[in-house]
């Protein structure tokens, strides 16, 4: 995950809950990709360190377990950048230029000059991040599958040119609950349409107040169409067995949208409160520093072993 902003509900439902369950089945590596953040934030990198710390605090708060999984920061394991250099040398430029997510990121990330040598090569760094642990599977969303294909192509090219060191990792696609952003677009830091895990009840209330509802509803007594309302989608996830009541009152014009949003803000804040308490715990007294130190040591042991094999294969 790139530390370029707060961790939000989109991350929680789209990735983190899945990551937590994968810990039972796999030996997992979870990395804060601060070099990837630097690739887009290089003109003003001041906040990367803060977001890195907070990102890890959120991961631990929601249930990633540093005993079970290796949790670390990319720049703490220098082997990633060395393997990146080696892969950069053997990756043909057209492979990068045709990568659909590269073009999408250029469109999505506003206000940054991303037409750089480094940014074009960020899928190569991703390949190094994955292959340095000889990963056999990567949990990705559908939009990330082309990146992973590129990783497989790089692995094949290396294996063919020198020595078969790398497995070809497979995507681990999982269906996750669909949670749109507050403005009905994909929830994203770039669109600033998210609810952060750390948002206070006041902030949540304010954000929910601005959500778009069923536009056909003008007066309170007008029957609502919850299936066309993003506020109702959120209720579905957070209101538990009271969802039937919300639906019934909406359809029969017995619940105003303002009151409906107040209720949503309340259940959302109740949902976030236990995570926020744990987050505070992890942010106190350098606890995160210890977790990351251990994680980096564990990661480095594996990464250094792979890199030694790579150097032997390329005879340098
Ligand atoms: Fe949406 Fe609630 Fe208004 Fe119905 S009452 S339209 S669910 S905000």
Distance separating the two termini: 32 Å
- Helix content range: 55-70%
- The fraction of residues assigned to DSSP E strands is under 5%
Q: Total number of β-strand segments?
A: 4
CATH class of the largest domain: Alpha Beta
Over the alpha carbons, how many angstroms does the gyration radius reach? 22 Å
Strand order of the largest sheet: 1-2
CATH architectural group of the largest domain: 3-Layer(aba) Sandwich
Low-pLDDT ranges: none
Ligand set: iron/sulfur cluster
What does this structure look like?
This protein has two domains: 9-179 and 286-314, HUPs (Rossmann fold, 3-Layer(aba) Sandwich), CATH 3.40.50.620; 201-279, Orthogonal Bundle (Tyrosyl-Transfer RNA Synthetase). It is built from 14 helices and four strands. It has 316 residues and is mainly alpha-helical. The chain is 57% helix and 4% strand. The model has no long low-confidence stretch (mean pLDDT 94). It starts with 8 loop residues before the first helix and ends with a helix. It has helices at residues 9-25, 34-41, 48-62, 79-90, 93-97, 100-108, 117-120, 122-131, 145-161, 201-209, 230-238, 243-251, 257-283, 287-314; strands at 29-32, 70-73, 137-139, 170-172. The chain has a two-stranded parallel sheet. It has a two-stranded parallel ribbon with strand order 3-4. It binds iron/sulfur cluster (SF4). Iron/sulfur cluster binds at residues 213-214, 217, 224, 226, 229, 231-232, 250, 255, 257, 260. Iron/sulfur cluster is lined by residues 213-214, 217, 224, 226, 229, 231-232, 250, 255, 257, 260.
